[in-house]
From TrEMBL, chain A:
Pfam families (alphabetical): FIBP (PF05427)
UniProt protein name: Fibroblast growth factor (acidic) intracellular binding protein a
Superkingdom of origin organism: Eukaryota
GO CC aspect terms: nucleus
Species annotation: Astatotilapia calliptera (Eastern happy)
GO BP, one annotated term: platelet aggregation
A GO term for molecular function: fibroblast growth factor binding
Automatic annotation (TrEMBL), chain B:
Protein name: C2 domain-containing protein 5
Localization of this protein: Cell membrane; Cell projection, Ruffle; Cytoplasm, Cell cortex; Cytoplasmic vesicle membrane
Keywords: Calcium, Cell membrane, Cell projection, Cytoplasm, Cytoplasmic vesicle, Lipid-binding, Membrane, Metal-binding, Protein transport, Transport
InterPro entries the record matches: C2_C2CD5, C2_dom, C2_domain_sf, C2CD5, C2CD5_C, C2CD5_YbjQ-like_dom, C2CD5_YbjQ-rel_dom, UPF0145_dom_sf
Chief place where the protein resides: membrane
CDD domains the record matches: C2_KIAA0528-like (cd08688)
Amino acid sequence: MSVELDVFVGNTTIMDEEVYQLWLDGYTVNDAVKVRMEGGVMDECEASKDVLLSDTMDQYRTFQMCERLLHSPAKLANQLLFQIPPHRQIMLIERYYAFDDTFVREVLGKKLSKGTKKDLDDISAKTSVTLKSCRRQFDNFKRVFKVVEELKGPLVENIRQHFLLSDKLARDYAAIVFFANNRFETGKRKLQYLSFQDFAFCAGQLISNWTVGAVDNMVEDMDVDLDKEFLQELKELKILITDKDLLDQHKSLVCTALRGKTKVFIEMEGSFKNLSRGLINIAANISLPLRLYPCRSDRWSAADMKLYLTHYTNSAHILDTFKHQVVWDRYMGVVKSCIFKMYHD
Amino acid sequence: MPGKLKAKIVAGRHLPVMDRASDLTDAFVEVKFGNTTFKTDVCPKSLNPQWNSEWFKFEVDDEDLQDEPLQITVLDHDTYSANDAIGKVYIDIDPLLYSEAASVISGWFPIYDTIHGIRGEINVIVKVELFNDLNRFRQSSCGVKFFCTTCIPQCYRATLVHGFVEELVVNEDPEYQWIDRIRTPRASNEARQRLISLMSGELQRKIGLKVLEMGGNAVVGYLQCFDLEGESGLVVRAIGTACTLDKLSSGSAPNTNTHMSPLAHGCRSTHNSPVHSVCSSQRLSQNFSVSVPTLIFTGMGSGGSAGKEAGPLRTLLRQQTQTALEQREFPFFTLTSFPPGFLLHVGGVVSARSVKLLDRIHNPDEPETRDAWWEEIRQEIKSHARALGCHAVVGYSESTSICEEVCILSASGTAAILNPRYMREGCLDIGCTDHRFEEPSPPNCGFCHIPYDELNMPFPAQLTYCYHCRRQKVPDVLFTTIDLPSEAAVAGKGCLIQARLCRLKKKAQGEANATAISNLLPFMEYELHTQLMNKLKLRSMNALFGLHIQISVGENMLLGLASATGVYLTALPAPGGIQIAGKTPGDLSSEHISSIQKRINDTIAVNKELYQINPPELAEEGVGSPIPEPRHRSRLFRSHSESSDELSELDLSHGKKDAFVLEIDDTDAVEDIHSLLIDAPPPTGFYSCNTENMPGISNWTSGVQMFTSVRVLRLSNANLTNQGLNKIFTDLCENLLKSFYFKLRSMIPCCLCHLNFTVAVPEEELIQVTVTAVAMTYDKEQTQEKTAEKPINKGQSLWSLEAEEQLQFPLELCADSSSSNIQTASKISGIINSASVDYGSFADRCSTWLELLRLKAHTIRRGSVKTSRRTQSLRSHIRAHTPPCISVTVVKMTPLSFLPGTRIIKYLGIINMFFIRETTSLREEGGVSGFLHSFIAEVFAMVRAHVAALGGNAVVSYSMKECVFMENPNKNQAQCLINVSGDAVICISETDQESSASTANTGQTGGSETDGAT
């Protein structure tokens, strides 16, 4: 005796958020049943294991049927097959496009190609995110990337409109797209301690200040490609370290301002040259903006760092022979906020 | 009378990719009606084509308008090869044919393909212009309204109830035609869908003609069924109740009297012509027939006490009524609930079954046999009703079960006496005379009073004086197929009671098979009845409503499933307990017996608590009528196959024994008792019933979730016993219920209403159970209120609906002649008298209630002026209030005739759809479950789309009448047929209406409509 067929269809599609999450997380039906049993849902309605199994199967089937629609979320709103209340639709989409920070950290800055997809089982093993879930997340990145690649207008807004995502999630996707497009490496050992959110913040800063879109908001890829003219101009900042006078002048100005305000003054004074060189070199070779690392020191507090960078930036304005004030501000504004973000434990 | 049908194809969206090379589609549309076809231009390389076509005009007879659907085919243009069909949409244009319903069909329809399912959507506008409105009723039956609802539809009033209408049409099933061997499955499915659509249209038109002949304008309780008889053909049959309905408008003072026209003869079908062109269709014939002895379910018990003689006038009146009804061939009513006062007495359930052998006949001129079969069964039902002293049958329905060439025809209903006041024209005067002589029957217990003569009872029954009015006799148990009358006095809550049974039978052919089946039937009926009775007692209840017994036949077994809603009627005596007895007094296992006895007693106590059955204690003294003699305990026999001799008369009462005893004489008996106790009560927060209203719950909130569930079990063990099968079948049903409770747990407190179980044996070792029901949330706080107070319970949908019905009554009385005033007075005093025992303050309440109703009348009047205006603006409201990204109208569906918290303001027409889905890639579609899951979802989607296109936002009285599933996993194939029906309506939120009526602000409506979808 066996159950040959077992379906339950509601006029309003019934979905359990907990089961949806298990499905998204790539649990098999049997594993999901186990998790639910441990969660104590059986006590709620005097349910048995069979009931739970049948319910889980039904829901998994429903989600599988919905998945096609979730690939283009706009369809979910005007399709006729499932009657899903609007707030549920939003939940479905938001959760489908949600991702694990540990997973995204692994693929951030990598090319979203077949090659990377082949590595997913390694990533799955490393992050203990199920392979199924890894695939979904990877495909989501790729899908969003593909759609917004050819669109004009602001990146975040495009993502939000095309995938009906919340502002927060749309910004995260913008960061992922940005990193994937520019192939900024984030896998360096030194950067391991940084979370996805740290990178997302930096990407946000870069998008709003350094891209083509920052000056012209009607070109293609405006928020994905960095402003090339700006990058050219950045090279000219080198004068701050190549010109000995300028360097000394700058140093004395900063040191005057800092003296007596911080415990690590001696160290700041001593490492000024290196620090300045580090910062300016990044500007000259922007493809790796995340070399900002040299600023990090065990003994400096976040406040110290802030103080130092503020004076470092402001002092440059006072330098007579330094003519690149606009570029300097555009550069240092982003660098400053990125460093602040990264400067945590 | 000709008319002009106009159709315009606007656009398509989400079309499938038909050209792999370009990932696009070159779509165009063919619009076909009758033999005329139009085409749109090809919209190249688009998955979201905009055709914006001209208006395609079809000039046609309205007969065709009724029969034919508009057929829209979406195709992919291919320059070099044949064009590929993407899918089809069939639009039934019937709703456009009467003025009160929809005026235009406009919206997005899913494009459906029988192999691929839904493939995109198409936006279509359809209109009909009928020439010469005045005369069209004469020529065809355009204009007759159809309702699936089995009560008088909410915004109508029945001025006349004409009675029973029936019709059937027969054709050859395209699936079994020779051409099917050479055509594709798609072509075959489409031929079948189209044929059934045509046949339903024809059937509806013919029924409509009969209604017109009788002078009516509507069919209520319209029930249409298909018999897929395989080789021998396809039968589409329908029954209904012809009525003259008046639309309730705010202006005219409603006249409450419903008459039954005494002159109209029940029209019977004459010839069932095959559809149109098909002239050589093979007809069906009967070459073997066994009629099964019929059971009459009523009260059980022993020796009735001698009762009072009925007054001579009363008898006279009864006779008059009887003659009025006897003029009809079949005094049957498919309605299950009635206006207050319509139903006088209820006798009990009457049912008839007959086993027939289907066979092709070779002489096409032979008269139709189907009609004769049904006529035979109806005659039997009629005579059973008469035996119960009743002149009418209410809650009447018919069904069939077919396996190979054997067919079981079943009919059942409730024998009843209807109010003579409703039988004649000009009834007001007579009504007054009636009242002087006939004792007023209190509305809350009157229907329980026995209609038959105590001295000449058709069966032994135990009678007592009514526990309410103490004047007339009532049985100790009452079984009916109707809904609980709204005015009935009940204690506690109701609950779903099911009896389940499996019986193995030998495989056989032809007559031997039919004989075997018909020999088994009486035993099955008997056992089902025994189970029902025991379970009823176990729940400490004394009446069953909505009883539906289905017997389904398979090759090697018969399945029986009886469902009903148990309730404690306070007018009936309290049920005695159940006593367990060993075969011999000094049995060794006496300890065992006493432990079972204890379990039973405990279960009864638990159930009493669970269903809150605390009947009012009767103060025996001070009641004028004689105290009923101490109740005898009736004895209940288990049935054994060996005891067939005793059972030949099917005397279910076992009257003269003095204990309600379950005898344990073998292991089977122990198992039976165990299986009795196996029914788990629903978990806390859940109630269940299979009727329109849940006894004891009325304060619904807006949460509504309709669902369909299908489960198929494969029996792997070939050597199953009856007992083992029973257990499997019972578990199957119980597990389904448990699954529902679990899935719907977020709706607690909630009630599963209208639980409709259908069983089938699709193949030798398969059992299929299909359930459709609706879960509705209610307000827990208010459930504690007494039944008597419910009418005052304002603002709750169900009761305010009812209050409204009743409202017509006092309204008229206030405005009308003095004679009717007397009537009210006496009526009210009747209530007071009857209720004096324990509802001392009822009189006060009653008068305040009348005040309240009067007040409400004004509100409603004002409200309904607004209503008519809002009707037109409703759709725009809905659009306006939905968030911009949501372009799909929310359509609620329910098997009930109402939606809680809302009021139906317009019926848009009947929905009657038939779909076939087939697959040759079963595994790829997720196996049988995946296949059926998506098909059911698609059917829901298509129903919703049609309703939305009609301008509606809900389907009431929805039912899935057929769900035939066939699979062949080895070939990776499956096929499924689904037939659904219901009434498309526009409903508006009750609170909206009230607020707008008082503030005269209509701008607020519609908003809560759309978000209320739970």
